[in-house]
Amino acid sequence: MSGWRRSLPSLIMVLTSTLGWPQISSTGNDSDEFSSVKELRADDVLNEIKNQLTCSWADETVDSYKSGDGSTTVKGIATTFLATQAVLEQAADLGLNMVITHEPTFYNHRDETTFFEGDPVYEVKRSFLEKHNMVLLRFHDHWHRTRPDGIHLGMVRRLGWKEYQVDPGEMVFKMPPQRLHDLTAALQKDFDANNMRVVGDPDARVSMVGMAVGAPGSKAQIRMLRRDDVQVLITGETPEWETVEYVRDAQAQGKRKYLILMGHAHSEEAGMEYCAEWLQTFIKDVPVQFIPAGNPLWTPN
C-alpha cells in the first residue's frame, strides 16, 4: 500500500476533529446517526397510529398488546378482523410479525387468559405467537372512535352504499324500495354467505335501512330501531332473546320494523381491510397486508 493511502485514515481523523465533522468509525460500522435503515419497532407503529387518529388515546381500553411487546422489531404488518390460528399462520408464512386485530384473540372481550391456562387450544395458540416472535395488537375502541369511524367507512365502501347514505356521520341509508327478501338476498350474494337470518315478512317493502355493525348491544340496536327513519336494522349479531324479540313484538303491534342478522365478521371485516390501506399511507418501511378471517358458520341449505 502506498504511503498516502496508509496515512489517509489519520488525515480524516485530523480533519473531522479540526472542522467539527461527525466521527466515522474506522472499522466500517457506521454509528446510529448514519445508519441507512432505521429499525421499526412495534411502539413506533402504535405511536404513529395514535398520531393519525382524530381521537385521544383512552386510558381505559381493550386496545393494547395481547402478545409480544413494543420493543419488537417489525418486519411486516397484517391487519385482520380476528386473529384466528389460521390468520396467524398465514401472517407468519408471509413474514408479517405484527398482527393488528379488531376483535379478541383469546375468546373473551378483554382477552383475559387466567381461565384458559393449561387449555390445549389456548396453549397452542400462545406458543405459536411466542415461537414466531409475533406482536399482537388489538385495535378496536379507537378505530371506532376516530372520525370517520374506520369500520363504518370500510363497510360503506364494501357495500357500495355511499350514494344512499343520508348523513356521512350516520349509518342510515335511503335505498331504492325493495322487498325485505331481495335486500337480504343481495347481501348474501355480495358477501358469499348463506347464513344470514331475518325477522319479518319477506315480502315487506322497505327502503330506510340502518346499520349497527358488529355486536354493539341490544340498547344500541333498539335505539336505532326507534328512529322513524329506520325500517330495517342490519347488524352483526345479538342474543336471540333481546333485539330479536323486540322486533317480533313491534311487528305484532303493527309497526314496520325488521331485522337482518348478517354475522359479526361480515358486518365489520371490510373495516379492517380499509385499515390496511389507511396504515399504508403513513407506514412506509415495511409491508402492510390485510388477511381475512372469514365467517366459520354455515348452514346445510
Count of discrete domains: 3
Specify the overall morphology. globular
Query: Rg to the nearest angstrom?
Result: 26 Å
Alpha carbon gap, first and last residue: 83 Å
Strand content: 5-15%
Backbone structural class: alpha/beta
Task: Describe this structure in a few short sentences.
By secondary structure, the protein is of the alpha/beta class. Helices cover 37% and strands 15% of the residues. The chain has three domains: 32 residues, no CATH class; 105 residues, Udp-n-acetylmuramoylalanyl-d-glutamate--2,6- Diaminopimelate Ligase, Chain: A, domain 1 (3-Layer(aba) Sandwich), CATH 3.40.1390.30; 103 residues, 3-Layer(aba) Sandwich (Udp-n-acetylmuramoylalanyl-d-glutamate--2,6- Diaminopimelate Ligase, Chain: A, domain 1), CATH 3.40.1390.30.
Task: List the SSEs and their pairings.
Blueprint: H1 3-19, H2 42-52, E1 65-67, E2 77-80, H3 85-93, E3 98-101, H4 120-131, E4 135-138, H5 141-145, H6 150-159, E5 172-179, H7 180-190, E6 197-199, E7 205-212, H8 218-225, E8 232-235, H9 243-252, E9 258-261, H10 264-280, E10 288-290
Parallel strand pairs: 2-3, 2-10, 3-4, 7-8, 8-9
Antiparallel strand pairs: 1-4, 5-7, 6-9
